[in-house]
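Example: Asparagine--tRNA ligase.
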Amino acid sequence: MKKISIQDMPKHVGETVKIGAWLANKRSSGKIAFLQLRDGSGFVQGVVVKANVSEETFAAAKSISQESSLYVIGEVTEDTRSSFGYELQIQEIQVVSEAHDYPITPKEHGVEFLMDHRHIWLRSKKQHAIMVVRNEIIRATYEFFNGEGFKKVDPPILTGSAPEGTSELFHTKYFDQDAFLSQSGQLYLEAAAMALGKVFSFGPTFRAEKSKTRRHLIEFWMIEGEMAFYEHDESLEVQEQYVAYIVQSVLKNCKLELELLGRDTTKLENIQAPFPRISYDEAIELLHEKGFDDIQWGEDFGAPHETAIAEHYDKPVFITCYPVGIKPFYMQPHPERNDVVLCADLIAPEGYGEIIGGSERIYDYELMKQRIAEHGLDEEAYAWYLDLSKYGAVPHSGFGLGLERTVAWITGVEHVRETIPFPRLLNRIYP
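Written out as structure tokens, the predicted fold is:
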């Protein structure tokens, strides 16, 4: 007898198989028991008919408790009533481990309770669906970058300097030196791009920002790309192609999950390159037209501003050329203006905010030294980074995409805390 996973059931219609699973829920109507089973790869209904099984098997079906683990043996049949399309006609149940008093029952629970039990909340259908979509985005990310000729590089997590200043970094001691948890692998990727041409990374980043909004995490994962001999507009083309690629991959490969989450997929089907682009100047004008008189030129946008701008479009929108004063030291100045830089933030639709930040990088040695000094950074700590502008400098550009915000947008989940297995929030480091 073949042992299979739930996701492989469509390949075994009419066969008797064995599946290791947990009992997510159950109901019975006298002589029939319906077991909702999950095994990590998916969910399926198992049907136990009293007349077709032993007394022991039917007794087990009636008595087994939520989240007990078991092996079930039965025939795979088609079931057009379910979104999965298949069910299991159970012939035998082998209990592996009985669970008692499972904390998360089929009723409403408060957010804090669920967060305290995140280690088991992950087992629920909605959380499972979000994690499957997250995994698909990661899979498609590797597929996209590999297909475009990028090499994966792994920047360090412990760093001796800060890519964007030191105000939001976690400080630690590195033996007898100061060190920080990385807020971005960008500077190291720039060095790698000078060796490998086009590179990308995927890893954890940390921000010691005391924010409690639905868009913020203390620890999150970022996909970053860096490209030698790429100017600003060329980088924007890569970014929009990448975002369109992962959205279409999710639509293709996560139909069941999006349906379970109640996601309006018509909004996602429209996500195709190219994306609209407006300048920071135009964004300020648009906000004033919409009644946001509080925002003035030179100020950064908050969540309400980004949402208002995004509502003007049915795709993600690039806001380009922000003022020098609100952007990091390494961004290339605009060729015709000294008050803005060649950068862009990509704002997702439906109020999910910025999902990508990117720019063309400075490659003039003297200008880079000047900017490091203007930002009050220690030139000695950045000596290795300055070498990139000294030895064979070239125009180059890059960007970083926040995975959790992107998952939230694509799934339609309200808060980023549900888009990462174990979220780290301002007041939460458990479990």
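Residues 137 and 246 are 6 Å apart (CA to CA).
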